[in-house]
Amino acid sequence: MSGRRFHSGLAAEDQVARYYEAQGAQILERRLRTPEGEIDLIAQLPHCLIFVEVKARKRHGPDSPISEKQWQRLGLAAEFYIMHRINMTGPTPVCRFDAALIGPDGTLEVIENARMP
Fold first, then answer.
1. Which one, out of 21, 33, 55, 94, has a CA that is 20 to 30 A from the CA of 1?
2. Percent of the chain beyond pLDDT 90?
3. CA distance to 17, 76, 98, per residue, from 79 (Å)
4. How many CB atoms lie within 10 A of CB 86?
């Protein structure tokens, strides 16, 4: 990954993290690497754990910026996180998978429940 893309990705993740914090969420993890893949952002609301895939887009359009394979990896990484990182004394937490898209002009679009891997 080029240095410019890396820093663009970090800036996009910062913007998305600020969005979730403004919604009252606590950011639990950023760029978490698991054996199953990377999770860009994990946020928590009082009754929901949110796994977020962040994409900085070069252009606007109807095409999906997140492939089926990426959703599958995110689902496996989320399962790993829940099984190995959460101190569970009760039922499995309610989880949501969001897509956060940053447009070429810096606009943010968050799609809640974008996918259930």
1. 21
2. 55
3. 21, 5, 15
4. 13
Q: With CA atoms as reference, report the closest residue to 52 among 28, 69, 36.
A: 28
DSSP code of residue 114: -
Rounded Cα distance between 102 and 109, Å, is 6
Q: What is the pTM of this model?
A: 0.84
Q: Please count the helices (runs of H) and the strands (runs of E) in the chain.
A: 2, 5
pLDDT tens track for 5-19: 544 668 889 999 999
Would you say 27 and 17 are in contact if contact means Cβ atoms under 8 Å apart?
yes
CA–CA separation, 76 and 81 (whole Å): 9
**Beta-bridge mates of residue 100:** 54, 110
Contact between residue 98 and residue 53 where contact means Cβ atoms under 8 Å apart: yes
**Residue 10 contacts residue 3 (beta carbons within 8 Å):** no
Rg, Å, the chain Cα set: 14
